[in-house]
């Protein structure tokens, strides 16, 4: 039966033949590969059913999916459209293009993952440098035993604002808003009015993300501009001096501790107070934090405004009472916060005194909505709040109050500064022809001193250093002044190390007798899968006889169906190694998992990364960290830029020997298994110095199309070919319908040789 005719066979399921390599002697119906799902290629998967209907399946990957980091904890900042690494680079570093008002206001601190305190809301300051709007509502219940007010409640709602001016310095507006007092004493009418306004600065004195330790100090001035009827605007205001620190303690518990003084300018009008507040939180479920807080308030000095009065007004009021010096109140709070997004957090806390002394605070319920950085009112979340109070008929002493809050991911008032992508943030330093080794070493040192990674490429003409790293302002000038540097040029392509701008000379890769990228066309041939000793040995001898210099054969097979033959694994690798011993051919075989890289590298000369794994970045890094050359196949749904960026992962990890392989892509065309675009060969060669190999077997999926497409690849300028050859394709365990038998391979090679001659290449 001709191989192409097999295509019309209805696939049968022969579990015996497919699962047990021993059953190879049985004629095995091959599993059709026409029903084919490419699982995770770029942002889309493609499903093709057995009738050849193609349906794209999209998924959205978080930016962290493509983030690489040596550290365990990687954070994502959606405003940057990028990933950043809290422990290595500093989370804020990627956000240089972000912030508000053209970068005047910087983004919030992202390297400390705790939640803000909720009790003592006017003084207990989060030590982080934040850019946020914080909507606060607090309902204080007044003890019924309170001699003047005889119970009742105080409602306070406010909008605290914080804005980061630098990574460490922020402006904080901690008190403002509106106060509503309702006393049970029938002689006292309800009163409402504006609160004082407090404005100040906070500075990170110590900031160490690696040990999760942060210490900040600050000063705030409360301006006496509030309404007298709600006990605001007394005297000439007051200063608040504070220190606040954060430490991650045992078992992932976050601890914030703050202490400060209220120091009135007019000591008659207001009392002096000291406080010490502590907050502990723990992430109970993802993004849901439980918190516990304790606050100690101590009045150091009485005022003179209310002689003989022995209670004070807590954190909200400063009554200037005459007999409060020495009083202490300790409160505790329980509650939690939920992070809806990185930029929107809701919190609820209930605070109550632990001491006998309560003054005005029987207990208090506080809710806060924190809308961080570009979010909230200004960006990707809009908060709607509705405040209600309800007094049941016939029960005038009871007042129920509450706040409905909802956050919507709507965009109505979007203000947002979009990141400015700068493609020329990587540079090449072209060294002078007569530079010395010392010049080179010193220049490398300076590049690394700027936090950039220096990759040295020694060419026959020139030596260049590709400086790849985070964007830094002004480093071009600094680098131009380095010894022995002729010029500093931006690398414009998104791929850097793979780019022809970095290395104009073509990369030549050699493994034994196999060579690709030089004048000679490298031919890799052999079966899709290693099936048994006879099969692989016969294939090796046949392809060698026709001029192939490398033997292909999968030992670990990435199959579309879990029921298809998965390869002989290490046994297959050993068979490949024995074929190399017998023929001297270099071995090319696929590695499908990071854990197998070492094992496959023990037997193979060239590691193949299959189409399904082109964007498996961990695997790319793993093959980048070892010495064997890599054959990187294009994902059927990947663009050529994505292919080059995948190669970049391998190059960046330290392995310069990468060959790219065009193996066909998904299109609407269903007559061939894939569509083989040979223009990509010419396109790639104009942009990269890496050798380009073509796979006409997978690229067409039909044996009878392979010879012409193989020779066409050479005409298009391919540096190499990889072809599937099997002693008896009709019995192949995988991809028999696209494999050449020995005779067909000989004819294909003959055709290729004639084309190679015509284009002045050697085969
Ligand atoms: C193969 O070479 O056998 C193979 C599975 O190729 P691809 O990854 O291109 O599908
Ligand atoms: Mn195959």
Keyphrases for this structure?
763 residues, alpha+beta, Porin, Alpha-Beta Plaits, 4 domains, 12-stranded antiparallel beta barrel, 8-stranded parallel barrel, 12 helices, 35 strands, binds phosphoenolpyruvate, binds manganese (II) ion, aldehyde-lyase activity, DAHP1/KDSA, transferase
Question: Quick gist of this model?
Answer:
With 763 residues, the protein is an alpha+beta fold. It is built from 12 helices and 35 strands.
Overall structural class, as computed from helix and strand content, comes to: alpha+beta
Instruction: Report the C-alpha radius of gyration, rounded.
Output: 35 Å
Strand adjacency order, main sheet: 6-7-8-11-12-13-14-15-16-17-18-19
Distance between the termini: 31 Å
Q: How many separate helices? A: 12
Which ligands appear in the coordinates? Answer: phosphoenolpyruvate, manganese (II) ion
What is the number of independent domains? 4
According to CATH, what is the topology of the largest domain? TIM Barrel
Shape: elongated
Main β sheet profile: 12 strands, antiparallel, barrel
CATH class of the largest domain: Alpha Beta
Assigned CATH architecture of the largest domain: Alpha-Beta Barrel
Provide the residue-averaged pLDDT. 81
Q: What proportion strand?
A: 25-35%
Number of strands: 35
> Percent helix among the residues?
10-25%
Low-confidence stretches are 1-98, 374-387, 406-424
Supply the CATH superfamily name of the largest domain. Aldolase class I
């Amino acid at each position: 039966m001709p191989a192409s005719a097999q295509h019309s066979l209805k696939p049968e399921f022969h579990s015996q033949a497919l699962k047990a390599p021993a059953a190879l002697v049985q004629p095995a119906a091959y599993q059709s590969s026409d029903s084919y799902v490419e699982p995770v290629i770029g942002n889309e998967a493609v499903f093709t059913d057995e009738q050849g209907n193609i349906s794209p399946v999209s998924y959205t990957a978080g930016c962290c999916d493509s983030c690489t980091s040596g550290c365990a904890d990687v954070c994502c900042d959606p405003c940057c459209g990028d990933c950043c690494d809290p422990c290595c680079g500093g989370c804020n570093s990627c956000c240089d293009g972000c912030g508000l008002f053209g970068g005047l206001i910087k983004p919030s601190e992202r390297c400390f993952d705790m939640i803000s305190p909720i009790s003592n809301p006017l003084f207990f300051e989060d030590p982080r440098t934040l850019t946020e709007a914080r909507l606060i509502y607090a309902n204080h219940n007044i003890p019924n035993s309170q001699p003047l007010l005889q119970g009742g409640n105080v409602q306070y709602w406010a909008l605290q604002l914080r804005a980061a001016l630098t990574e460490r310095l922020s402006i904080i507006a901690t008190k403002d808003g509106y106060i509503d007092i309702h006393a049970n004493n029938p002689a006292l009418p309800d009163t409402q009015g504006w609160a004082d306004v407090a404005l100040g600065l906070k500075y990170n004195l110590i900031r160490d993300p690696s040990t999760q330790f942060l210490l900040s100090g600050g000063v705030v001035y409360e301006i006496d501009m509030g309404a007298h009827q709600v006990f605001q605007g007394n005297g000439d205001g007051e200063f608040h001096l504070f220190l606040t620190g954060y430490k991650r303690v045992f078992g992932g518990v976050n601890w914030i501790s703050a202490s400060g003084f209220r120091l009135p300018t007019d000591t008659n009008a207001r009392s002096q107070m000291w406080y010490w507040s502590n907050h502990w939180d723990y992430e109970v479920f993802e993004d849901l934090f439980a918190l516990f807080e304790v606050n100690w308030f101590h009045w150091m000095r009485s005022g003179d405004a209310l002689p003989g009065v022995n209670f004070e007004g807590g954190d909200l009021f400063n009554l200037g009472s005459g007999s409060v010096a020495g009083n202490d109140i300790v409160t505790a709070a329980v509650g939690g916060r939920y992070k809806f997004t990185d930029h929107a957090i809701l919190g609820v806390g209930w605070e109550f005194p632990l001491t006998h002394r309560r003054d005005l605070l029987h207990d208090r319920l506080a809710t806060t909505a924190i809308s961080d950085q570009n979010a909230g009112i200004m960006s990707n979340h809009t908060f709607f709040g509705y405040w209600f109070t309800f007094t049941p008929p016939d029960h005038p002493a009871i007042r129920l109050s509450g706040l409905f809050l909802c956050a919507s991911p709507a965009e109505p008032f979007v203000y947002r500064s979009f990141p400015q992508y700068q493609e020329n943030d990587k540079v090449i330093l072209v060294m002078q022809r007569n530079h010395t080794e010392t010049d080179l070493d010193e220049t490398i040192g300076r590049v690394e001193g700027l936090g950039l990674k220096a990759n040295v490429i020694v060419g026959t003409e020139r030596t260049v250093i590709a400086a790849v790293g985070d964007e830094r302002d002004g480093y071009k000038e600094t680098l131009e002044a380095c010894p022995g540097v002729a010029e500093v040029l931006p690398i414009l392509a998104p791929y850097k190390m793979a780019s022809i701008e970095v290395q104009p000379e073509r990369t030549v890769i050699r493994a034994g007798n196999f060579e690709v990228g030089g004048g000679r066309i490298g031919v890799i041939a052999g079966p899709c899968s290693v099936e048994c000793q006879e099969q692989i040995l016969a294939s090796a001898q046949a392809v060698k006889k026709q001029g192939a210099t490398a033997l292909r054969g999968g030992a670990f097979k990435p199959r579309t169906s879990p029921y298809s033959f998965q390869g002989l694994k290490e046994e297959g690798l050993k068979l490949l190694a024995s074929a190399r011993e017998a023929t001297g051919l270099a071995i090319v075989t696929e590695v499908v998992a990071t854990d197998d890289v070492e094992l496959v590298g023990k037997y193979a000369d060239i590691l193949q990364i299959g189409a399904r794994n082109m964007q498996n970045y961990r695997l790319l890094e793993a093959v980048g960290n070892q010495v064997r050359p890599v054959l990187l196949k294009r994902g059927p749904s990947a663009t050529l830029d994505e292919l080059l960026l995948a190669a970049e992962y391998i190059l960046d990890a330290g392995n310069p020997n990468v060959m790219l392989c065009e193996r066909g892509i998904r299109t609407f065309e269903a007559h061939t298994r894939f569509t083989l675009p040979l223009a990509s060969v010419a396109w790639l060669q104009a942009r990269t110095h890496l050798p380009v190999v073509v796979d006409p077997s997978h690229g067409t999926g039909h044996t009878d199309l392979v010879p012409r497409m193989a020779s066409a690849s050479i005409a298009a300028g391919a540096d190499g070919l990889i072809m599937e050859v099997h002693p008896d394709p009709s019995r192949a365990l995988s991809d028999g319908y696209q494999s050449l038998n020995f005779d067909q391979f000989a004819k294909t090679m003959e055709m290729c040789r004639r084309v190679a001659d015509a284009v002045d290449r050697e085969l």
